[in-house]
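Hi there. Long-time user, first ticket. I'm pasting a complex I've been working with (about 415 residues overall). I'd like to know whether the download I got is complete or cut off, because the file seemed smaller than I expected. Thanks.
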Amino acid sequence: MIHANTGRIQQHIEQIATFTATPGQGTTRMSYSAQGKQAREYIKAQMLAAGLTVREDAIGNIFGKLVGKEPTLPSVMIGSHFDSVPHGGAFDGPAGVVMGLEIATLFHEHRLTPRYPLEVVALVEEEGASFGRGLLASCAIAGKITANELDTLYDSEGISAAARMTESGFHPEGVNSVIRSPQSIKAFIELHIEQGPVLEQSNTDVGLVDTIVGISQLIVTITGKAGHAGTTPMDSRQDALVATSRMVSQIGDFARQAGGATVATVGKLQVFPNGANVIPNKVVFTVDIRSKSADRLNQVIEQTKSCIQQNAGDGIIYHIEQPLYVQPTPLDPSLHQSLKRHSDRLGLSSKTMVSGAGHDAMIFAGICDVGLVFVPSRNGLSHHPDEWTDYQQIQKGVDVIFHTVKEITEATQYD
Ligand SMILES: [Zn+2]
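Hi, the file is complete. Here it is re-exported in full:
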């Protein structure tokens, strides 16, 4: 049985990790920065060495293609993103890109010719750290980004995404040419670090994702009345923070009662005027709700809204915005089964999982069949310089995807 090469995986990840704007303080690699360009050149060189034909699209996604026996058939695409958050880790993104490089190398090494073309992809701008727009590249591939949007998204220096792309030699005005039709992709398989503790704690080799959670975010503004903390009697107060605390203390229970791994988080809370001796007159807080079931997601959103309503009144006014609502995304069941079968054949332990975070795979699910494989994150840590996955664990994930890809590209050996 063919196995991926752990040493090569380690070498690629360590090399890509050197392309950081913050050496010694984690990975900081914006897509259109000098470090992004260094990573790009490295990835392209590795694709060429693995015998792939390399091209970059109009916004800088890198594709390495092994055409195979029937060039007009749709591609089996594998990969992930190569940008990072500021001071992030070496594995979020690159683990999946390196999976693609390693599988192409295995095809090359073992003289495998696919019937369906194999395409390795390294995507830009997944994190949204440059322009505040996560999943930008995969959204562009799905036809969900316009040239106008690229002109109006800005980085922290006030430079537009389009200008950054042009500066790097790309053609944002041609963003429509980036779109891939469902007829051009047979399947997309991504490997990603788990970014949570489940696999490590259960001593499981690979997580096979069957659903990416639905996400809703609410921004809630509670308005009361300011007053002197010493001279306003307790009975004549309209304290926005006291009202807020009654709301916040219940929101977690709604998620717990909904079950099915539904989660709800109040992660941000701003108190105004925020003075030690002033009764708070305004509080703004966020609620992040996630669930694999649309019904449970909607239930917790509704419970949260009515809880806010019930705890207002008596001079307390509320306002709720919902800037984000994404339905849960089920991934392809037959691809999930194939990944499971190959994991079993390789003697690996696996677990069917829900992805609590959004990934490029979620967007590809609108175009083609999608598979997503997680490998364990040490201490569940991610978006942190100490983010870590053992190279042997990545190798196991690559093995599962390699054998699945070999099967679905209908690859055969030549001499
Ligand atoms: Zn990622």
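A couple of notes from our side: The chain has a mean pLDDT of 96. Residues 6-213+328-413 form a domain with the Aminopeptidase fold (CATH 3.40.630.10).
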